[in-house]
UniProtKB/TrEMBL annotation:
UniProt keyword Signal present: yes
High-level lineage: Bacteria, Pseudomonadati, Pseudomonadota, Alphaproteobacteria, Rhodobacterales
Keyword hit for Signal: yes
Pfam family of the protein (one): DctP
GO cellular component: periplasmic space
Keywords: Periplasm, Signal
Source organism superkingdom: Bacteria
Protein's cellular compartments: Periplasm
The protein's name: TRAP-type C4-dicarboxylate transport system, periplasmic component
Length: 340
C-alpha cells in the first residue's frame, strides 16, 4: 500500500467516524411571551439548563421570545415545519383543530395550575399522538386560572351582551358568543393595543399577565372567580428529535414528563396569582367577588360549553365520556379540579 493510499484510507475512516456521531445540538425554542415573563425565567430557562447539564453539554439552546420567529397563532405549525425545534403552543388559538385538549379550557374546571399541570399532562399524553401527529409531543400544562378583566363593570353573564372581548382561547370565544358578546381574537402580546384603541372592552386573562402586558391601565374591573384556564403544549420538531443520538433522545425523554410539566408551570402560576393581590391593593381597580347567586348564574350560563365539547370530541371519533372521566379523575387526585 502506498503512502497516498494509506492517507486516503485514514481520511475515509475519519469521515465515517464523524458521520456516525451526532454533532452537538442547539435547540431553538420559540415563544411568544416576552423574555421577562415568569414562564421563561422560572420555566423555560431552568428546564433548558437541566437538559444541557444532563446531556453533558451536547444539547444547548437558544430562546427566541416575543414572537421573534413567528406569530403565536402559528407555533404548532412552526414546530411541524422546523422553523423552530421546540415551540410554545396555545392549541386554543386554532379553534376546532385540537378538540380533546380543549377540555382544559372549559369554564369552572381547573382550580390550580401548579398542582394541576402534572395531572393534566398525565391525562393528555394518552391522546397527544393521535391529536397532534405532526410533532413530537413533549409536555402539556396550564396557566393559573384566569377571569374577566374589563373596562366597565361586569357582574353577571347578561352584562356581557353587546360587549366586545378578547378571549384567551377558542372555548372562551364560544362562551362570549353564547352570552351575546363579540370576540376579537388576537395573541396575548397584542391584547393591550386592541383594548387601548377601543376595539375591545376587556379580555379573559390570568391575573398578573394583566400587569405584565400593561393592560392594567385599561381594564380596571375584575371578577374574582376561577373562570377558566388555557392549555399549552411544548411541541418538538420530529426531525430534530429523530436526528439526536440515543443518549440525547433519552435526555429529552427525561425532560418531557408530567413531573416537568408541573415544574414548568409552578413558578408561572405563583407569579400569576400575585396579580390578584396587585388589583386588591390598587384603589383604582375594582375586584368583585361574585355572590352565590351570581356564581350560580355564571355556571348555568356556561354549562352548554361542556355539551358542545362532548359533541365535537365524539364527532372526531373519540369517546368523550371516557375522556372526561379520566380528566376529572386525574385532576381530582391532584386536588386541582373545581368542585362541580
Amino acid at each position: 500500500m502506498t503512502k497516498t493510499t494509506i492517507r486516503l484510507a485514514a481520511a475515509s475512516a475519519l469521515a465515517l467516524t464523524a458521520a456516525g456521531a451526532s454533532a452537538d445540538v442547539n435547540l431553538r425554542l420559540s415563544s411568544w411571551v416576552p423574555a421577562q415573563h415568569a414562564l421563561q425565567t422560572t420555566g423555560f430557562e431552568p428546564w433548558l439548563a437541566s437538559i444541557e447539564e444532563a446531556s453533558g453539554g451536547t444539547i444547548t439552546s437558544t430562546i427566541f421570545p416575543a414572537q421573534q420567529l413567528g406569530s403565536a397563532l402559528d407555533h404548532y405549525d412552526m414546530a411541524r415545519d422546523g422553523i423552530a425545534d421546540i415551540t410554545y403552543v396555545n392549541p386554543g388559538y386554532q379553534p376546532g383543530r385540537f378538540p380533546v385538549i380543549a377540555l382544559g379550557e372549559t369554564p369552572f374546571h381547573v382550580a390550580d395550575a401548579a398542582e394541576g399541570s402534572a395531572a393534566f399532562d398525565r391525562w393528555y399524553r394518552e391522546y397527544a399522538a393521535q391529536e397532534m401527529p405532526d410533532i413530537h409531543f413533549c409536555m402539556a400544562f396550564l396557566h393559573d386560572p384566569g377571569t374577566l378583566h374589563t373596562t366597565t363593570e361586569v357582574l353577571l353573564p347578561s352584562d356581557l351582551e353587546g360587549m366586545t372581548i378578547r378571549p384567551g382561547n377558542a372555548t372562551m370565544g364560544r362562551m362570549l358568543n353564547l352570552l351575546g358578546a363579540a370576540s376579537v381574537q388576537v395573541p396575548a402580546p397584542e391584547a393591550r393595543e386592541v383594548i387601548a384603541r377601543g376595539a375591545a372592552e376587556g379580555l379573559t386573562f390570568p391575573w398578573d399577565s394583566v400587569w405584565l402586558f400593561g393592560i392594567d391601565s385599561e381594564t380596571k374591573f375584575h371578577l374574582d372567580m376561577d373562570l377558566y384556564a388555557t392549555t399549552f403544549v411544548l411541541a418538538m420538531n420530529q426531525a430534530t428529535y429523530d436526528g439526536m443520538t440515543p443518549e440525547e433522545q433519552a435526555v429529552m425523554d427525561e425532560h418531557c414528563t408530567s413531573e416537568w410539566a408541573g415544574r414548568l408551570a409552578a413558578g408561572w402560576a405563583e407569579q400569576e396569582a400575585s396579580g390578584r393581590d396587585k388589583a386588591l391593593a390598587d384603589d383604582t381597580h375594582v375586584v368583585h367577588e361574585p355572590t352565590a347567586d351570581e356564581m350560580a348564574a355564571w355556571r348555568e350560563a356556561t354549562a352548554p360549553l361542556l355539551d358542545e365539547w362532548r359533541t365535537e370530541v365524539n364527532d372526531a371519533g373519540y369517546d368523550a365520556d371516557a375522556i372526561y372521566q379520566r380528566f376529572t379523575d386525574e385532576m381530582s387526585a391532584a386536588d386541582a379540579l373545581v368542585q362541580q
